[in-house]
């Protein structure tokens, strides 16, 4: 052989200078230095130089030197490798295009490896078939990459026709009609690579070998040529194509079926499969159970067998992917894998490995996975036969499940084609079970536009004939349940019961089980283990009833389901037909499909749609966040959570990350940005410390952490440990992510990353691969070990049976022989499991026989001795792992775990390796991490253990490139059109399925025709036929017509105008008294939620009193149910305290609004807390400057926020606290708001409205242009009594006593003192009366009765939700203890109101805020029997049948005083009586049924007057030593008076008057009033600041009598 040197260089990538050279000659002499001159001398006299990738790399730097040294030719081992080592396992020194190396940057080492590789290549060529040598020579000897090789080995061949030799050698192995002549002339290298691999297929039929990824990248035509030779049937047919590419033969070979299914006699399934084998793109619409899977699986498996092509199946359902892979394995097909979030880390790694090495020909992935860099790399490394897209209706906004992430699929395929340099496009198959015409058109046009592909359509028009449909209309839940029981008992067969909510699945299954039925629940969010157990039990017939959401049934093929009952109807006709179609898969049985229909079920679908809908506002918020992130650069990498936070979304947002990625997909589709690949960064996958104490000790002892980092490091490691101990993998994943840790702990992301890196340096975190797995236990036995031993025996029996030559086996015979050989518990399924595992590991290759399902042919792919060693090693390791985990589980067992059959254990792969290496064993083997993972994979496959999720500290970034640079550009309605169309269509689908149910009740044939027309007619024609005229407009309603009438049917046209206004950005409603303002607002809130795309977390309503908050919540709950509980309705102060995370108090409330505004402007408040799409302001006329500033600030923070302000400027009666209606006016003018006037008065009789309108004209600068209009035509009574005297209390009370009253009555006064005296005089005259009192000076929580109730709840600091039983017990004890207190009613009213506004859960913090903000007057209660007496201010917002108004010496000068009087007048519904002693109302013209009286009598003050004492009237310090006496008293108890204070009934002193009150008593005496009696008004708690202790004090009510 001529002299040859093998070389390698190391080059500086920046300067391009030679850093090092390594070389070895064939005589063994070595060279290793950087000197170019010395290297030139080393290679002198050498004819050939050889290296790996020398032609593309080293030659650029040393080519000139080689020429000068007289080197004649250069050989490159890179190009020879795929040619001469096409069969797996490939050459040990190769990994794709690189040499396997132990050391980085050691050129001499690599040169020696190149030498070894080259001589192996020479040897391999010499061993080739002579004809193949000739073919390679004829194709390649003229090519730069190969000619030197042939010169070196001195191979030459002259003569024969290249094509002729190829056709002879590859007879019946390639298509006879392939244009070889053209390929030989134009693509000789690519053809040679293909022929090498095909030759490998022929001679190593059972081994999965693939073209290396680097070849596919550099020679893209290899893919096309391979498919042309082996994968594309010729038109006329040839012996290869007729055999290898016959879809019927493929069906028989892989699935054992003789023929495909037909639809109405038409062989659509076979036609679609043939179209796929013909490399056509297609769209198949097959009904549920129509065998769509087999239609793409057969061509995929054929392509895998013929050319090692990979078929990529894109499906939105993870569980369905796993089911399909498992179902294929059950019939012995191990060529399919799935890569999705449900896989454990070991299984995931194995799936990647199987795709990379060619042993998988089907890959199932979700659309979101297409954004993954590793998935892209995986796909680029294989020849792609086809993309299959399941659930293809997701492409269409007219489909029942439009998904924006589907719109990226076309771009992804295009990207793959471009990166592979493919001239021919990759074919596509789309499948869907149900699709109306518009959906089909959308799918076809999508692929036409994106990929220039015309999809061939295969659609079945035949409906299932063995299904009988029926709908029962059921009035309520109980009727439904009884009907369900009757149906189940009547038929007694496997049944699926569909419900619409996950919770319902549990409750219904539980109730059926209690009633003696065999039922299990199933839903998509269920724990994977529970889901699998329940599904398997149903499939095996152990359970008769499956109560499930729509997640159940996809891909589940249970033939004997005799009944499908929709307990709640589906949300679309498509879904209903699909779900009902899961009955009667066996064509020989007649199955029943029942619906238990109730209109309310449709309402649930509307509510769910509204909750899950991605609104235009939300997309605008995400766009605003991205503009902010990309302010200084066009590209950004942030996690979905960070973008959500930037957009102002909080934790209430459902599926927050999915919503972010969907919004980004919508922005991408509209051209605003381009989303790149996900960029996950894994920081660690294990925690080395056993517990928190060990980790904290290491942190504290470390000198790498700064002091402040130590504190944060401890918080972070605690968070990681708590997330790791979570039992649910789904919860765990989010908790151990960098962005979530940052968000939850409030530590800046960059700082979290720094600390996590320090934790790695201190060996607290590492890459030891933490895992969790369920180990099977029971009755003190290691059940996992029993399973392992059983499988080990079977494997030991099977291995000797298999040979290195093909041999036919019979499964049943193998099973019987295994039993005879002592394999206890063996069965056919266990043998299949082992054979599948061996096939996955490439130990054997097997194929089913056409003539029998039980016969198969198998061959060993590796030497038996080698397999025996591997088996022993795996068994030993597996046994060790199971024992180790079992022992570990016994050490950490809890009481709860002792009763479980499966216990979850934590461990790491490295921990297992170390434990094995430290163990004592005579036959200990050298093991690697890969061996441990292999043993775990095996244990998982045989179900000895069940591996759950791993532990990761990871940061998942989305890469976004901003395309729209204009900062002012907003996401528009036009951009949103596609999504909007989908949501509108979803609304229509709910109405349509409801119409179907109603038709099915009335006319069976008409209903069936309705369904047929829905799928076959043009959609517009269908709507015209079934929804003509006004019915068409009902289709737009986001609720049933009945619900719409219930919600909005009784509103007036003016009120409806406000409801329907969903366009105006700013709305000001100027509402007159009695105009139904609260009602309109409540209905508007309902409309925002149910009809206007507003999510509850993005809606804020602010009002001025806790009473208003309670009223709105109660009314809203009554109107729309549970949805009302999630709306944020707060007082201004509560909102601010909540924002700043503070507890509110009277003392702090003055400054809180200013502080809040300041903090919002300084960005010190979480964006999510102030990001709202709608702000509603109640009683907006009562805003003061601070409140208006807060509103303006919120508007500045939310440019797109809608504001709805409702108020009546005529009722602004709080000017004393700075309130002014000018702020409502400013909102109207500054923001060009739309003004709606609500001036129809529903409260008062006609003449009362006319009277108050006259008075209102005296008020200046009013917002309303229109006078209030009475809706009641009849008249009430207006009486004005004008006095000459000063004291009006006595004549007023006499008038009340003389008037025949029915209904509610209220006396209104200007002062508390007047109200108190009137109440006393009424009571003295035996008229039931109640003073509307106030709790000025103390919180309601200080009231003894309220405090007692709170103490009975006795909640610990870490209890946040009040248990129902604790609540009920506290109520009972309160009632027993305080039954004689006259304040008990108030306390019970407080409790009732809180229950009404918190019907589901009672949060401690909500109760605190509720009591803190409430006022005593809110809970006084109303009764027709009792006259209420109140100041005008306290009566605002209330109404009464009869109002008596006392105006003693009142002559209003200011507008504020006039408005107060106007409020008082407008409280009356039927009778208004005014007692006054001025000419105030003399100028008002008379109205109908109005009486004017003049009373010239002279009246004195009442003989008896009352006083209610406050904190300043009693000596507070005195109570400290009187606690035992005070504790015996109740509100309402009588007290004994003396000059200094009061005593109890036992004459024990309980209170002393203050010095200030003593002076007041003197002045009372001088006016001839003496104290007559006293009683306990309030018992309240007071904080003694000196001792910092709370003491009970008594605030009495005193009665004085006039003497003489």
Structure description:
By secondary structure, this protein is of the alpha/beta class. Helix content is 45%, strand content 18%. It has 64 helices and 54 strands. The strands form twelve sheets. It has a seven-stranded parallel beta sheet, with helices on both faces. Strand 51 (1541-1543) and strand 52 form a beta hairpin. Helix 25 packs antiparallel against helix 41, helix 27 (640-646) crosses helix 28 (656-669) and helix 47 crosses helix 48 (1106-1120). Residues 726-734 have low confidence and may be disordered.
**Multimerization state:** single chain
How much helix, percentage-wise, in residues? 40-55%
Which regions are unreliable across 5 or more consecutive residues at pLDDT < 50? 726-734
Distance between the termini: 146 Å
**Strand tally:** 54
Mean of residue pLDDT? 90
Main sheet?
7 strands, parallel
Radius of gyration: 42 Å
Strand adjacency order, main sheet: 10-11-9-12-13-8-14
| Percent range for β-strand residues | 15-25%
Shape: elongated
What's the quick description here?
This protein is of the alpha/beta class.
Task: Itemize the secondary structure elements and their pairings.
Blueprint: E1 4-11, E2 18-25, E3 30-33, H1 36-43, E4 48-51, H2 59-68, E5 73-76, H3 77-84, E6 94-95, E7 98-99, H4 107-127, H5 130-140, H6 147-153, H7 162-169, H8 180-186, H9 188-203, H10 213-218, H11 221-230, H12 239-244, H13 247-255, H14 268-277, E8 282-285, H15 292-307, E9 310-314, H16 318-330, E10 336-338, H17 345-356, E11 362-365, H18 373-380, E12 384-389, H19 409-419, E13 428-432, H20 437-451, E14 456-459, E15 467-473, H21 477-491, E16 495-498, H22 502-514, E17 519-522, H23 528-539, E18 545-548, E19 563-566, H24 573-580, E20 591-597, H25 599-612, H26 616-629, E21 635-638, H27 640-646, H28 656-669, E22 673-675, E23 679-684, E24 686-687, H29 692-701, H30 707-725, H31 729-735, H32 738-745, H33 749-761, E25 765-766, E26 770-778, E27 781-782, H34 783-801, E28 807-810, H35 811-820, H36 828-840, E29 844-849, E30 852-860, H37 864-891, H38 895-898, E31 902-908, H39 909-918, H40 929-941, E32 945-950, E33 953-962, H41 977-1002, H42 1004-1016, H43 1019-1026, H44 1030-1034, H45 1041-1048, H46 1053-1060, E34 1066-1071, ...
Parallel strand pairs: 1-4, 4-5, 8-13, 8-14, 9-11, 9-12, 10-11, 12-13, 15-20, 16-18, 16-19, 17-18, 19-20, 34-38, 34-39, 35-36, 35-37, 37-38, 40-41, 42-47, 42-48, 43-45, 43-46, 44-45, 46-47
Antiparallel strand pairs: 1-2, 2-3, 6-7, 21-33, 22-33, 23-33, 24-25, 26-27, 26-31, 26-32, 28-30, 29-30, 49-54, 50-51, 50-53, 51-52, 53-54
Helix pairs in contact: 1-2, 3-4, 5-7, 5-9, 9-11, 13-15, 14-15, 19-20, 25-41, 26-28, 27-28, 29-30, 30-31, 30-33, 34-37, 37-40, 41-42, 46-47, 47-48, 48-59, 49-50, 50-52, 54-62, 55-56, 57-58
């Amino acid at each position: 052989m001529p002299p040859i040197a093998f070389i390698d260089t190391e080059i500086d990538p920046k300067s391009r200078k030679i850093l090092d050279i390594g070389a070895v000659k064939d005589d063994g002499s070595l060279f290793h230095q950087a000197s170019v001159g010395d290297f030139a001398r080393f290679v002198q006299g050498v004819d050939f130089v050889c290296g790996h990738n020398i032609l593309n790399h080293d030659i650029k730097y040393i080519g000139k030197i080689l020429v000068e040294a007289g080197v004649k030719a250069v050989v490159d081992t890179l190009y020879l490798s795929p040619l001469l080592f096409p069969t797996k396992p490939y050459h040990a020194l190769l990994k794709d295009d690189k040499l396997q190396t132990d050391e980085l940057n050691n050129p001499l080492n690599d040169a020696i490896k190149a030498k070894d590789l080259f001589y192996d290549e020479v040897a391999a060529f010499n061993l080739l078939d002579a004809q193949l040598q000739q073919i390679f020579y004829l194709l390649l000897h003229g090519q730069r990459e190969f000619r030197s090789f042939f010169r070196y080995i001195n191979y030459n061949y002259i003569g024969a026709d290249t094509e002729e030799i190829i056709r002879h050698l590859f007879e019946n192995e390639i298509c006879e009609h392939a244009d070889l002549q053209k390929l030989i002339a134009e693509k000789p290298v690519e053809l040679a690579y293909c022929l090498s691999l095909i030759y490998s297929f022929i001679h190593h039929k059972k081994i999965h070998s693939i073209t290396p990824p680097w070849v596919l990248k550099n020679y893209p035509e290899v893919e096309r040529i391979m498919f042309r030779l082996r994968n594309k049937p010729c038109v006329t047919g040839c012996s290869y194509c007729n055999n290898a590419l016959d879809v019927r033969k493929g069906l028989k070979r892989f699935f054992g079926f003789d023929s495909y299914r037909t639809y109405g006699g038409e062989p659509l399934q076979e036609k679609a499969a043939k179209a796929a084998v013909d490399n056509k793109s297609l769209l198949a619409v097959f009904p549920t159970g129509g065998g769509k899977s087999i239609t793409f699986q057969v061509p995929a498996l054929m392509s895998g067998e013929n050319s090692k092509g990979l078929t990529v199946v894109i499906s939105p359902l993870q569980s369905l992917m796993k089911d399909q892979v498992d179902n294929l394995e059950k019939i012995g097909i191990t060529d399919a894998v799935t890569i999705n979030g449900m896989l454990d880390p070991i299984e995931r790694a194995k799936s990647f490995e199987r795709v990379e090495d060619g042993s998988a020909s089907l890959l199932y992935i979700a659309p979101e996975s297409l954004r993954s860099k590793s998935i892209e790399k995986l796909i680029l490394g294989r020849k792609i036969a086809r993309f299959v897209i399941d659930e293809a209706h997701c492409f269409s906004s007219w489909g029942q499940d439009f998904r924006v992430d589907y719109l990226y699929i076309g771009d992804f395929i295009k990207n793959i084609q471009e990166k592979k340099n493919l001239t021919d496009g990759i074919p596509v198959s789309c499948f869907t079970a149900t699709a109306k015409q518009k959906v089909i058109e959308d799918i076809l046009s999508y692929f036409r536009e994106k990929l220039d592909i015309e999809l061939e359509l295969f659609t079945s028009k035949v409906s299932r004939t063995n299904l009988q449909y029926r709908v029962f209309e059921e009035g309520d839940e109980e009727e439904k349940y009884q009907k369900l029981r009757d149906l189940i008992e009547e038929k007694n067969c496997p049944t699926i019961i569909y419900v619409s909510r996950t919770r319902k699945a549990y409750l219904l299954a539980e109730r059926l089980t209690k009633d003696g039925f065999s039922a299990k629940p199933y839903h998509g969010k269920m724990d994977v283990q529970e889901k699998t157990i329940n599904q398997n039990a149903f499939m095996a017939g152990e359970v008769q009833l499956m109560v499930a959401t729509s997640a159940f049934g996809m891909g589940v093929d249970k033939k004997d389901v005799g009944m499908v009952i929709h307990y709640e109807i589906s949300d679309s006709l498509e879904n209903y037909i699909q779900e009902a179609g899961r009955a009667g898969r066996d064509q020989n049985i007649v199955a029943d499909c029942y619906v238990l229909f109730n209109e309310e079920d449709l309402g649930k679908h509307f509510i769910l749609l509204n909750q899950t809908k991605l609104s235009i506002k939300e997309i605008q918020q995400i766009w605003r966040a991205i503009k902010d992130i990309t302010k200084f650069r066009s590209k950004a990498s942030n996690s979905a959570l960070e973008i959500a936070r930037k957009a102002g979304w909080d934790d209430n947002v459902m599926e927050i990350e999915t919503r972010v990625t969907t919004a980004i997909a919508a922005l991408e589709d509209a051209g605003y940005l381009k989303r790149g690949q996900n960029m996950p960064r894994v920081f660690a996958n294990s925690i080395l410390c056993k517990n928190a104490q060990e980790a904290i000790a290491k942190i504290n002892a470390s000198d790498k952490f700064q002091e402040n980092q130590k504190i944060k490091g401890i918080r972070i490691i605690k968070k990681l440990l708590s997330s790791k101990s979570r039992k649910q993998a789904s919860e765990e994943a989010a908790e151990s992510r960098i962005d979530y840790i940052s968000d939850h702990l409030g530590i800046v992301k960059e700082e979290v990353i720094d600390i996590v890196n320090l934790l790695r340096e201190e060996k607290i975190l590492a890459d030891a691969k933490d895992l969790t797995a369920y180990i099977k236990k029971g009755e003190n036995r290691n059940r996992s070990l029993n399973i392992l031993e059983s499988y080990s025996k079977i494997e030991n029996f099977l291995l000797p049976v298999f040979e290195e030559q093909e041999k036919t086996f019979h499964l049943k015979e193998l099973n019987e022989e295994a039993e005879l050989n002592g394999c206890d518990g063996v069965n056919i399924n266990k043998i299949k499991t082992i054979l599948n595992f061996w096939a996955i590991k490439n130990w054997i290759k097997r194929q089913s026989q056409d003539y029998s399902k039980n016969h198969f042919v198998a061959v060993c792919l590796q030497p038996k001795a080698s397999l025996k060693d591997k088996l022993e090693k795996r068994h030993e390791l597996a046994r060790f792992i199971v024992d180790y985990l079992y022992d570990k589980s016994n050490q950490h067992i809890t009481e709860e775990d002792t009763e479980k059959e499966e216990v979850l254990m934590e461990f790491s792969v490295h921990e297992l390796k170390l434990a094995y290496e430290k163990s004592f064993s005579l036959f200990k083997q050298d093991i690697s991490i890969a061996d441990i993972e292999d043993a775990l994979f095996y244990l998982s496959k045989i179900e000895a253990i069940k591996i759950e999720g791993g532990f990761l500290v990871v940061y998942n970034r989305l890469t976004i490139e901003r395309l729209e640079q204009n900062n002012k550009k907003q996401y528009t309605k036009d951009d949103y059109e596609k999504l909007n169309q989908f949501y509108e269509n979803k609304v229509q689908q709910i109405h349509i399925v409801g119409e179907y149910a109603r038709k099915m009740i009335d006319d069976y044939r008409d209903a069936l025709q309705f369904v047929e027309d829905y799928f076959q007619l043009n959609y517009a024609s269908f709507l015209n036929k079934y929804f003509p005229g006004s019915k068409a407009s009902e289709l737009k309603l986001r609720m049933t017509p009945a619900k719409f009438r219930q919600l909005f049917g009784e509103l007036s046209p003016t009120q409806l105008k406000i409801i329907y206004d969903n366009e105006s950005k700013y709305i000001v409603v100027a509402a007159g008294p009695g105009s139904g303002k609260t009602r309109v607002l409540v209905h508007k809130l309902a409309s925002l939620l149910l009809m206007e795309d507003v999510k509850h977390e993005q809606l804020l309503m602010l009002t001025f009193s806790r009473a208003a908050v309670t009223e709105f919540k109660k009314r809203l709950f009554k109107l729309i149910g549970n949805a009302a509980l999630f709306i944020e309705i707060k007082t201004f102060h509560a909102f601010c305290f909540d924002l700043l995370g503070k507890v509110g108090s009277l003392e702090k409330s003055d400054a809180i609004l200013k502080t809040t505004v300041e903090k919002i402007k300084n960005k010190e408040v979480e964006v999510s807390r102030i990001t709202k799409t709608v702000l509603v302001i109640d009683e907006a006329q009562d805003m003061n400057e601070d409140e208006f500033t807060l509103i303006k600030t919120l508007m500045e923070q939310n440019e797109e926020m809608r504001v709805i302000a409702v108020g009546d400027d005529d009722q602004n009666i709080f000017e004393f606290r700075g309130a002014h209606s000018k702020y409502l006016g400013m909102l109207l003018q500054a923001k060009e708001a739309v003004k709606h006037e609500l001036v129809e008065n529903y409260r008062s009789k006609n003449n009362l409205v006319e009277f108050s309108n006259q008075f209102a004209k005296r008020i200046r600068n009013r917002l309303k242009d229109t006078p209030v209009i009475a809706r009641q035509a009849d008249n009430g009574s207006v009486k004005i009594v004008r006095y000459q005297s000063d004291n009006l209390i006595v004549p007023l009370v006499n008038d009340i006593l003389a008037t025949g009253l029915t209904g509610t009555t209220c006396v209104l006064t200007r002062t508390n003192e007047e109200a108190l005296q009137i109440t006393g005089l009424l009571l003295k005259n035996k008229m039931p009366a109640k003073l509307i009192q106030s709790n000025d000076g103390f919180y309601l929580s200080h009231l003894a009765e309220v405090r007692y109730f709170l103490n009975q709840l006795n909640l610990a600091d870490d209890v946040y939700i009040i248990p129902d039983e604790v609540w009920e017990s506290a109520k009972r004890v309160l009632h027993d203890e305080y039954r004689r207190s006259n304040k008990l009613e108030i306390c019970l009213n407080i409790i009732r109101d809180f229950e009404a506004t918190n019907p589901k859960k009672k949060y401690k913090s909500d109760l605190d805020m509720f009591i803190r903000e409430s006022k005593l007057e809110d809970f006084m209660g109303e009764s027709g029997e009792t006259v209420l007496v109140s100041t005008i201010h306290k009566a605002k917002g209330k109404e009464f049948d009869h109002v008596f108004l006392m105006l003693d010496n009142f002559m209003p000068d200011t507008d504020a005083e006039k408005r107060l009087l106007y409020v008082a007048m407008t409280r009356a519904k039927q009778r208004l009586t005014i007692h006054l002693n001025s000419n105030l109302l003399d100028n008002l013209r008379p109205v109908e049924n109005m009486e004017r009286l003049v009373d010239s009598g002279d009246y004195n003050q009442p003989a008896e007057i009352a006083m209610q004492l406050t904190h300043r009237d009693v000596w507070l310090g005195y109570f400290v030593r009187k606690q035992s006496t005070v504790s015996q008293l109740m509100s309402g108890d009588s007290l004994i008076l003396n000059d200094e204070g009061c005593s109890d009934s036992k004459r024990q002193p309980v209170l002393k008057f203050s010095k200030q009150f003593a002076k007041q008593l003197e002045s009372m005496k001088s006016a001839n009033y003496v104290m007559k009696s006293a009683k306990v008004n309030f018992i309240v708690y007071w904080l003694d600041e000196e001792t910092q202790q709370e003491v009970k004090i008594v605030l009495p009510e005193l009665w004085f009598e006039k003497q003489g």
